[in-house]
Amino acid sequence: MFQQKQTFDFFKSYAKQWQISAEDSIFSNIQNRHLAVLETLKKFEKDSSILDIGCGTGQLAIEASSMGWDATGVDFAEEMIEIALNNNKKSETNTKFITESIFEYDAKGKKYDVISAQGFIEYISLEQLDEFFGLLRGLLKDSGMIAIGSRNRLFNLASFNEFTELENALGTTDKIINESVILQTSSSQKDAIAKLRKLNAEYTQPTKHPETGIKVDVRHQFTPADLITRIEKYGFKVTAIYPVHFHALPVQLMNETEIKTFHKNLARHISESFITSQNFVPYSSSYVMEAGI
Fold first, then answer.
1. Domain locations in the chain?
2. Half-sphere exposure of 1 (CA within 13 A, CB side)
3. d(CA 209, CA 163)
4. 3-state SS assignment for residue 222
5. What share of the chain is helix, strand, coil (3-state, %, to 5)?
6. Quick one: which H or E segment has residue 2?
7. Is 59 helix (H, G, I), strand (E, B) or coil?
């Protein structure tokens, strides 16, 4: 499919920049997602196993390995895995890295306690997304959990740009507002998830998305309620929604150095102090959804 070819070509050429982004000393969206996944890892013994799908340059798997986890990273871009292997060598961990599409990955009967996929589901078709969630059931232990990152469709109403106009054209604005109100007014993660689950949402996806700097025409976004519905069709039960990349400043001013630096510091503070609070999700450009069987 053209979407996957664009994705493959982009990430083959983007590996070095991905490494630089992951190492940003002030704030890294990549590290923010990893911090959310670490919340899931805290619920398991440290000798448990994790599979990181679309592992990029390997930071999450390496950190898990350094904590005593049996960690494996899989990515279809050889250039990403080359850097991941080098990072692994420098970190002196035993992380395993494999160059493979997850749709072709042979786990040889192994099942994992935690499966993470960050910056992944936006790049596959909706048909592949269904296949992916079914595949996860086969790779996960009965007591295991998944941590799935998603671009946040709720944030389109806070960005006040062409993404906002897109939602108006699709007629989804009221639905997105409703979800945001639920996340803001719910007393807990459990309460918010229960209310979102009742919406039984599955929204229409546009055939093309506005330009973001990532050279892939279709990068899917999901609201939390939409993703809950899609995940739970496969027997999972969502347990948490973690905000990623708090972004309550005008996106149009992010090229101004002073504002960009202030934004990074603010986003880092929210990431470090409020990663478990659903209240920050509507103002975040991404989120990580945790679910168990």
1. 2-49+114-292
2. 12
3. 8
4. strand
5. 50, 20, 30
6. helix 2-22
7. helix
Q: Are 274 and 233 in contact (CB under 8 A)?
A: no
Residues 17-40 have a mean pLDDT of: 96
Task: Kindly state the DSSP code that residue 108 receives in the 8-state scheme.
Answer: T
> Which residues on adjacent β-strands are paired with residue 289?
148, 241
Fold classification of 2-49+114-292 is Rossmann fold (3.40.50)
Euclidean distance between CA atoms 113 and 96, whole angstroms: 16
β partners of residue 237: 292
Sheet holding 96-99, edge to edge: 96-99, 70-75, 49-53, 112-117, 140-151, 284-292, 237-246
Burial class (CB within 10 angstroms; exposed 0-12, middle 13-18, buried 19+) of 231: buried
Contact 286, 245 (CB under 8 A): yes
List the single range of 4-13, 55-64, 114-123, 187-196 with lowest mean pLDDT: 4-13
| Full DSSP string of 228-283 | HHHHHTTT-EEEEEEEEEE--S-GGGTTSHHHHHHHHHHHHHHHHH-TT-GGGGGG
Contact 210, 182 (CB under 8 A): no
Q: 51-102: per-residue pLDDT in tens?
A: 999 999 999 999 999 999 999 999 999 999 999 999 999 999 999 999 999 9
pLDDT in tens, 216-272: 998 999 999 999 999 999 999 999 999 999 998 999 999 999 999 999 999 999 999
Percentage of the chain with pLDDT > 90?
91
Reading the block at residue 216, the tokens are 């892939």
Q: How much is the pLDDT for 213? A: 82
What DSSP line would sit under 144-196, residue for residue? EEEEEEEEBGGGHHHH-SHHHHHHHHHT-HHHHHHHHHHHHH-SSHHHHHHHH
Q: Is the pLDDT of residue 209 over 90?
A: no
